[in-house]
Specification:
178 residues, alpha/beta, Pyruvate-ferredoxin Oxidoreductase, domain 3, 6 helices, 6 strands, globular, Oxidoreductase
């Protein structure tokens, strides 16, 4: 089982990130669970979700010791870094997190300038997708093509397929940044 917590400000695509991950898992026959949590104000408040992807049964939606922590801001790191599994991955949006910040020494920290990379490909709302590209490359929890297919299908199902070319560019930017 892979346990992931995605966290950041509302409006950064945190809950959507979790949904894309579980859709990718379901597309390859895995059992999945998505458990969202967000403040009363969607934009600007805090948001996070617990994601589980497993070949076996999933007993609880809550991640006690996640393998992967996907963070888009400093408060997300503050809140969840201490529960990240030893040897786990911490993905950091280095565009807005202090470059001198200290991290635990028993985890793998992957810093990606998601805001800059998303802007560079002309997809300013795609910072989360940039980070997903980095996550997929660093962890190999999905094959690149599997994830891109699932991501595009997710947006097609939402009636937003016109964004797929820019979303794929954002994904590739993050994937190539690792």
């Amino acid at each position: 089982m892979v346990e992931i917590i995605c966290a950041g400000f509302g409006g950064q695509g945190i809950l959507t990130t979790g949904m894309m991950l579980i859709n990718a898992g379901a597309n390859i026959g895995q059992n999945v669970c998505w458990y969202p949590s967000y403040g009363s104000e969607m934009r600007g408040g805090t948001a996070n979700c617990n994601v589980k992807i497993s070949k076996g049964k999933i007993a609880s939606p809550y991640c006690k010791e996640p393998d992967i922590l996907f963070t888009m801001n400093s408060p997300a790191i503050d809140k969840f870094e201490n529960i990240l599994k030893q040897g786990g991955y911490l993905f950091v949006n280095s565009s807005i997190v202090d470059p001198d910040r200290k991290y635990r020494d028993n985890i793998k920290v992957v810093k990606i300038p998601t805001t800059e990379l998303a802007a560079k490909v002309g997809n300013s709302k795609g910072s989360n997708i940039v980070m997903l590209g980095a996550l997929i490359k660093a962890t190999s929890i999905f094959k690149k093509e599997q994830f891109i297919e699932a991501m595009c299908k997710y947006f097609e199902d939402k009636g937003k397929s016109k964004y797929n070319p820019k979303n794929v560019e954002a994904f590739e930017a993050g994937y190539n940044a690792v």
